[in-house]
Amino acid sequence: MVNPFRTPIDRGEIRTGEELKSLYRREARKCHPDLRSPGGGERDFIELTRFYEEAREYLRTGKAPPDPPDRSGEFYRYWQALLDEEQPHARTRETRERREGLRRLMGESFRLWQPGNVALYERGMAEFDRIGERRAPNDLAHLRRPLLYDEVAPLIYDLCRYRLSGNPREERLLCRMEGTVLARLGEEGWDSLAALLSLLLNGAPRGE
Length: 208
Fold this sequence. Notes:
By secondary structure, this protein is an all-alpha fold. The protein has two domains: about 55 residues; about 130 residues, no CATH class. It contains ten helices and no strands. The longest helix has 21 residues. The N and C termini lie close together (about 5 Å).
């Protein structure tokens, strides 16, 4: 996310520390936890305060802080590792704890990379979890049509590999799979997961 105080400084609209502090106070009133519902605004307020401190230093020295790291790579690495941990042979307490840790890291990296799409991510991942819990009613049904999870998980895995490697071969695999999987998700009512995957498949913008 771009520091909201940088543009006014660059435009010359803010020239002194007092002017910067005044703008910070105005913005802080919009998200201060004491002025919001319980539990609301705390994260936004912390981030705004961090931006304010960076802007103070920028105003004083004229040197911008280094750009934050791109979080998209972190997100895809965590998701790929999580899918590796989901293999049938990996059902121990230790692997369950690793999966929980990876899931937390996934969520945090997505929030930092795509702050405007966090609600979609949470809904989509909740649907992905429910799909993973479903089981075919019998072996014959499974043979007639694979479990949805068994179609979605390989698509996600190949998506992670492509985003991390940029290999054109991985892109071709994605192109062959995505239409079928997204159509089935829509057909069965998993709209949030379909929207999340569409966002990622169509090249969600890289973190700022």
